[in-house]
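ok new one. same drill as before - structure tokens go in, u give me an amino acid for every spot. 308 of them this time. try not to just spam alanines like last time pls lmao
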């Protein structure tokens, strides 16, 4: 068994995948956690300023301003996650070969892939939206057909239908999570990356990818909750008092506090989840395509170059 970097070059176990993601963060914190703080800060600052601008629009109701602020924060957070995921995938790819990627090298390698990563996100969103439209139409049709059998039949159709659609979304969405890794590591376009992700998760291995991805999501949700619960309590306490006797300062401070929580959580969560995604992608290529041979040759060539 050869292990030039963070994982052994063989089909990976769950411990190899999670351990490899954590090792990448521990061995190269500047290019993982540090990059997370940097990228998220760069995009969350304009997000905060845009949120403040929304709060100043007096013609909007308070509820509408709250919704717009949430949408602005979500948009910038998604953009930051896309860019950061691409960079972390590259860092993990280098760590597998035993190399440490610096921040500058990572940015130069990934910056040209960011449009493709955004395109991948847009395409996946459109595909899932199309599934949602089809599901709604199916609900309407089935509900109409079941209405002749009584209210109980309608309720059963709705309940079973909602569960089925949720499972379909999870199944399809998780299978497509490998697309960013293909876009970065294979340097392919958005549609080709989606096709690669889908083909790599066919059959029984697809369920394995889904299970590991959901387990990683549970772990990150536990960490996120551990950070957000105390922060949320602080927000409520802050919202119940007059800040420096000036209520106009409360909303900006609440929004700023929320962005700060996003920064801290995202800087740790996104590198871990991106690392798991990258290693799942490599694991599937090792299992299906024998990629370990090419990885070993590349690692040996780099080791020889370092010695010379």
């Amino acid at each position: 068994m050869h292990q030039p970097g963070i994982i052994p070059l063989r089909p990976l176990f769950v411990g190899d995948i999670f351990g490899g993601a954590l090792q990448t963060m521990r061995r190269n914190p500047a290019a993982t956690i540090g990059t997370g703080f940097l990228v998220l800060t760069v995009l969350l600052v304009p997000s905060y300023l845009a949120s403040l601008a929304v709060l100043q629009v007096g013609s909007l109701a308070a509820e509408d301003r709250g919704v717009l602020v949430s949408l602005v924060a979500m948009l910038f957070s998604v953009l930051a996650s896309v860019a950061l995921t691409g960079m972390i995938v590259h860092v993990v790819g280098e760590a597998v070969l035993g190399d440490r990627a610096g921040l500058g090298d990572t940015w130069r390698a990934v910056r040209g892939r960011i449009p493709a990563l955004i395109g991948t996100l847009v395409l996946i969103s459109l595909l899932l939206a199309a599934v949602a439209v089809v599901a709604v139409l199916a609900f309407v049709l089935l509900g109409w057909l079941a209405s002749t059998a009584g209210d109980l039949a309608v309720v059963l159709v709705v309940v079973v239908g909602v569960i089925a659609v949720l499972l379909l979304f999870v199944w399809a969405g998780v299978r497509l999570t490998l697309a960013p890794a293909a876009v970065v590591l294979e340097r392919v376009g958005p549609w080709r990356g989606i096709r690669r992700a889908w083909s790599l998760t066919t059959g029984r291995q697809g369920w394995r990818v889904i299970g590991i991805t959901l387990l990683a999501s549970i772990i990150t949700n536990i960490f996120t909750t551990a950070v957000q619960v105390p922060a949320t309590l602080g927000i409520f306490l802050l919202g119940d008092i007059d800040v420096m006797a000036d209520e106009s300062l409360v909303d900006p401070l609440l929004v700023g506090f929320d962005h700060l929580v996003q920064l801290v959580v995202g800087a740790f969560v996104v590198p871990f989840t991106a690392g798991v995604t990258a290693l799942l992608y490599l694991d599937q290529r090792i299992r299906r395509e024998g990629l370990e041979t090419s990885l070993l040759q590349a690692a040996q060539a780099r080791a020889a170059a370092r010695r010379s």
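Residues 48 and 179 are 30 Å apart (CA to CA). and btw Residues 241-247 have pLDDT under 50 and may be disordered.
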